[in-house]
């Protein structure tokens, strides 16, 4: 019984081994069989249908959603004083230290941006930056900006009305406008005293110069020359047409003329009486008288006329003598005036030359310079005296309301540079594209943006290149489009809607910018289906029954997303639904 079982087991093992050997042997192949099994299958065609649809070519941008128009904010001067440039120390040596830092978030016109040393820094709308303290009498466009913000009459001059408006502005917001303190008033008084002292010193030096012994004789000489000149001019002014003596003598001569005229008249009358005929008698005629002898009367008349002529000639001669003597006197007086003027000019010139070389003159020149400096310092100080707006207490921003994006300082910091970054409330998408693709982009092109959750929103390309940089690169060279096809170019896009974007600021966005599209539906095939023949003409192969194909010459158009617009050269050779060969497999 035991032997039979053992024998059965041996026979069963042999059968199992034989079966395994047969199975393995049936699966083994020779090298020839293996090579025959690896032969390539019979070639077949890979095709794609020709479709009619609208093609749109796009450039894809991987960007980030952010706020637009970032602007670094710096203070133009000290806060709480009339100082100039910003530094660690302000007026009177007080450090310019932040007491309240800017808070990220919206900011409106007139709002306090921050506090420095407890003083406010206001945000106001204006295109021109604050660059100087605004004090009484200041003129300019920055003053006009301030007046517009304060809603007072725009004159461009920091006048009394503006001063009153500044006081109201600060008081309404719980602050006091910057005014001159006790120390400033003391300084003003000291400057005034310095001017007065300089004036007194100059007056004393001038007096010493005028009284100097080295120029005194010349000064006396000039005074005498001036007195002589005044005397000569007075004598010339007072010279009369005729002297009293001459007037008496002339009157006597004229009386002699009148007496001679009377003698002539009497002689003429006597002669006329003598020459009258006798009257005619009415009765018995009397004896005729003898002729009257008139020779004596005629002689008297001739003598009288001669006396008149001589008297008249005497008057004419004396009048001529008076004229000659007067002219001679006038010439002598005019000559005396000229001589006196020359003497005065000579004396003045000599005194001037002496004063120029006098040591006292140098002292007077120095006193004049000191007075000019004192007046200049006083005038300069007056510019910042009274109610003023310190250069650091206003920040003009181009557009308000805006948004504080980031505070660059914290309480306790000293002011050394940028204090915050302000952006507009509008959103923007920033990114970059290859320089080659950038050549296809133009501001104003439409785009579509997609958020991480798949939301689709419209957008517009705003700028490319340097104009698209929201912040300038610091410490490194940016990659610019220099005309080559390498590198990257920044792009800036504006979302078409701001709804729901506030929570997505800082998240990535995929934007597709449309750079071209067909006017309507066109016949399109995959780009790989178009081949160029030896003659340089593009063609496609249309699949027929089996493995047969036929070539169709086409004209190509817009390419988009791997497809290309095609138009058959011969109408009807290619139509929608035809399958074109993409590759041979």
Automatic annotation (TrEMBL):
It is found in: Cell envelope. Signal peptide: none annotated. Residues 188-270, 294-353 form a coiled coil. SUPFAM superfamilies: PGBD-like. Residues 29-48, 463-498 are annotated as: Disordered. The keyword Chloroplast does not apply. Keywords: Coiled coil. PANTHER family: BLL5650 PROTEIN, EFFLUX SYSTEM COMPONENT YKNX-RELATED. This is Peptidoglycan-binding protein. It comes from Nonomuraea mangrovi.
